[in-house]
Amino acid sequence: MKYFVLLAGDGDVGPWDQLSPEEQEATFAKFGAFDEACGKRAGVETLAGEALQDGSTATTMRTRGGESTVTDGPFAEATEQIGGFYVIEAPDLDTMTDLCRILPPYDIEIRPVVDMG
Amino acid sequence: MTSKSDQSSTWADRTIAETYRADWGRLLSLLVARTRRLDLAEDALSEAFARATERWPTAGIPGNPAGWLYTTASRVVLGQLRSEAIHGRKARLLAVSTDWIQPTATGDIGDLDDERLAMVLLCCHPALHPAARSPLALRLVIGTTTEDIARLFVVSRATMAARITRAKKKIVAAGIPLSAPVGNELRTRLDDVCRTIYLAFTAGYAPASGPDLLRTELAGEAVELAAVLFRLVPDSPQVQALYGLLLLQHARRGARVANGRLITLAEQDRSLWRQDEIRTGTELIVDLPFGVGYTEELRLQGLIAVEHARASTAYDTHWPTIAALYARLETLTGSPIVRLNRAVAVGESEGPQAGLDVIDGLDDALANNHRLHAVRADLARRAGKTRLARTAYHAALELCTNEVEQRYLTHRLATLDPPNP
């Protein structure tokens, strides 16, 4: 099945710009280890994965009654901390949680992608 | 005088009931493991039991009742799959982990321990809502009816049915797999499983709302679940502790209510306690080595239950030992409920005033807990502090929603010494 993995909050990692260069490097190393583990695991394939710029760069579009408005900022306060995402093919949820433990300790949401097949 | 058909119908009903109790979980686990269709398997097995109820009284009981039920349920599933294929529908299969070995289609249905354990672990998966785990385990592993589960957790049947359905949907949609975890992974997951079963058990004994104080038979379902788990993983200390503890507590069921009145431990007729269960439970508990974490919590609670069971009359209870065990449990858990229980034990071993001292400082943590006030009231009454007792009984009654316990409190309040003139 396909999973959408959202790095939804800073968690134990803390805000990126407050990390020391060593901490940033260690965090990068964990992303590297995650990529490597996904590559080695049977039945697992990373289909997409990107880091996002911070919430202050977000633009939100809303459409109400056919009228669309464009505003500055993220969709909701809770989404300010979203740091990136992956789309990963994996056999099951336990495989996903197992792999995500390798990532830096962000708060992570794992959601199945709708199967259109 | 009963006719022959009445007799065979009774016989068939009894066989069906026994098979349901003994084999529901095994049959369902096997069906799920083979078809990977959680939704269809459960309905199909219910359908098979319904057909047995219709057919066996007249056609006779088949030589292998469980085998007949399995074959019938399999055919129902196959029929469903065919109809889905015709209509071009493709349902998502239950995920299975990569180390999972699919049971062979022709295999013996006698020994299914792995499948059953996988089913227990599936129901208690941390990705499921905590409130759904025990209901799901009772439903799928033991076959408790949704109606009974609803009664156990004091919610409406519709609410419980929705909760169970949602959990089953999540399992399939999120890809929570049937798996056979080993080593550390299994140990971690077993903590969740034990918590789940203990929750189901305490729901049966918890003074909740409604007229039946103890849903004893339903608590028995949780004991049964623990028994199954203990058979599946006999070398796990937390499972051994859980099973022992539940046996010891459940052994007192016959003595806990009489004439709709709650009978406190001190007043219980101890000849009604099940000695065989107490023996087994005691052996399981005292055999355990010192543990850590949740295992140790269960073991300490088990030792407390052993201590109560050991006393042939309430008077013989060795309260200092119990108070010391509660103190260790309190250090381990930091739980205000444990402290409240310690207050009761201290009240017995060192006197009611010492018990009242232990309660001090619990008012914030247990503000809405009627037991805090009920315990304070009893201790105050024994300490001769009638005015405090009266206030506390009133506070307890205000918060208590269980009718049987309300009667107990009202009775106590009414028989308090009159205030000094």
Work out the helicity level of chain A: 10-25%
Low-confidence sequence ranges of chain A: none
**Approximately how much beta-strand content do the residues of chain A carry?**
25-35%
**Strands side by side in the biggest sheet of chain B:** 1-2
Oligomer: heterodimer
State the CATH topology of chain A: Alpha-Beta Plaits
**What's the total number of strands of chain B?**
2
User: Major sheet of chain A: order of its strands?
Assistant: 2-5-1-6
SSE pattern of chain A, N- to C-terminal:
EHEEEEHE
Radius of gyration of chain B: 24 Å
Tally of individual helices of chain A: 2
Search tags:
heterodimer; A: 117 residues; alpha+beta; Alpha-Beta Plaits; four-stranded antiparallel beta sheet; two-stranded antiparallel ribbon; 6 strands; B: two-stranded antiparallel sheet; 18 helices; 1% strand; elongated
What would you say this structure looks like, in words?
The complex is a heterodimer of chains A (117) and B (421). Helix content of chain A is 24%, strand content 33%. With 117 residues, chain A is α+β, with helices and mostly antiparallel strands. The radius of gyration of chain A is 16 Å and the shape is flat. The model of chain A has no long low-confidence stretch (mean pLDDT 92). Chain B has 421 residues and is mainly alpha-helical. Chain B has 4 domains: 7-87; 116-233, no CATH class; 243-317, no CATH class; 322-421, Alpha Horseshoe (Serine Threonine Protein Phosphatase 5, Tetratricopeptide repeat), CATH 1.25.40.10. Helix content of chain B is 68%, strand content 1%. Chain B has helices at 4-35, 38-59, 65-86, 113-123, 130-142, 146-152, 157-174, 183-205, 216-232, 237-250, 275-286, 293-310, 319-333, 336-349, 352-359, 370-382, 386-399, 403-414; strands at 257-258, 261-262. In chain B, strands 1-2 form a two-stranded antiparallel sheet. The longest helix of chain B has 32 residues, at 4-35. Chain B is elongated and about 80 Å long. Chain A binds chain B through residues 1, 3, 42-43, 90-97, 110-112, 115, 117, and chain B through 90, 92, 95-98, 127, 173-177, 179.
